[in-house]
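Hi D.,

Good news: the full-assembly prediction came through. Inputs first.
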Amino acid sequence: MILCKVIGSIVSTIKLDSYRNKKIMLVRPISPDGKFKSGTMVAIDTVRAGEGDTVLVMSEGRSTMDILELKNREPLRSIIVGVVDRIDTISNQLRK
Amino acid sequence: MKLGRIQGKVWATAKDPKLNNCTLYILQPVDEDENPIGMAQVAVDTVSSREGDLVYWVGGAEATFPFPDRQIPSDVTIVGLVDRLDLKKL
Amino acid sequence: MELAKVEGTIVSTAKSEKLLGYKLLLLNLINPDMSSSNNYVVAVDAVGAGEGEVVIVVRGSSARQAEKLTNVPTDSSIVAIVDSVEFKGKVVFRKS
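Then the structure:
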């Protein structure tokens, strides 16, 4: 999983059935100090993440299938699996 | 599959039981001119390669399949030694 | 697999229920000379690693093959705690 920030959501009418009734978000990778990195992604949300939240994004098809409890493989890969409250370190410099 | 140069070795006692008896090497992926490609990786050896060897390796899900009896948690597995590269310079 | 240093623990309340009970660690990927690559990844721990330790992280679908993590949805797993690293003929790391 990688740390990302939710930068927006996508509204889409014409889409594959796999994407029906799913929240489609736009996420951008960040470093632990909150700086944006390149590689903006589209990700399905499962944890009610909102814009500005720091989230964990997983990109693995079989795991996405498990989380969404799908019976068959579908063309879905990137998925938001957690909202990060904080990062505990010994120095605790790397706060959310 | 890609080429790589073995640059070192990693020792780890506490590891996933499926990796027991696996040799772990530091492997730098390279192109045919030995230019490095990306970050150095930790690779599982299956062909008794040694440090300094030029090898070829497989990545992704296929890296878990070197042994018939078990799948291993590896995403970089060395699958062959390069004796010689015959290159035609175009 | 890649070498990485454990930098902290991710605290997340809103996370996928399939990930409940698994320790998520923030890893800084490092080069074999122990320098930071400034790339970060969050991984599920399969070996009881702690902060400050150098570990080996497996990414992609292979991450699901760790013995303790079969059927856990993950795209990155910690599969070993590194004792020592030899790089280009020199011992560059030894666990204290």
